[in-house]
Design a protein that fits this description.
Blueprint lengths: L6 E7 L9 E7 L5 H6 L15 E4 L2 E4 L7 H7 L3 E4 L7 H10 L2 E4 L14 H12 L6 E4 L5 H13 L4 H12 L5 H13 L2
Parallel strand pairs: 4-7, 5-6, 5-7
Antiparallel strand pairs: 1-2, 2-6, 3-4
Helix pairs in contact: 5-6, 5-7
GO molecular function, one term: inositol-1,5-bisdiphosphate-2,3,4,6-tetrakisphosphate 5-diphosphatase activity
Protein name: diphosphoinositol-polyphosphate diphosphatase
EC number: 3.6.1.52
Amino acid sequence: MKEDSYNTKLSLNQQPARSHQMCRTIEEYAPAVDHHVDMLSSTSDDLNLIPPLNFAMVDNGIFRSGFPDSANFSFLQTLKLTSIIYLCPEPYPEANTEFLKFNGIKLFQFGIESYKEPFVNIPEDTIREALKLVLDVRNHPVLIHCNRGKHRTGCLVGCLRKLQRWCLSSVFDEYQRFAAAKARVSDQSGECSVLHRIN
């Protein structure tokens, strides 16, 4: 496919009083061809529908996972995604970007660092901006992911659960299911401090 057959739009959203970039948005508009039909017209034997690591449905039109790779693309096409919320600072790989272009999927990137130190909080303003995108049905179906679909994704989903009026014990239970044995005390305390400020 030719690069010039796409119209690419890049915009930066910034907090008014800050100079750092909060969200990087890439919208890829593919030609008016329904690639979902082409891909799904194959028999089920021809498709390898492999979900990404830690994939799950969060709510109607909202999914979560670890970082998808090319082995997951056929599965992701069945979701007919409108957008992806990526929670890591690293650049999106070229193969994934091409997949987004081919399927007309918008990418919203929030560069949340992976912290190893205890009691480091995820920035509240970043979580609020990401939540706005998750709650906007124009972005649905949406996939939220970080590298492993555990900590950063779990914190954002936990904040969504708070808005859905889940009790904190249920929020932490869900978080731990995805984080498994590697659930970090610092993540839970950091998530808890963000959860108490998210209304």
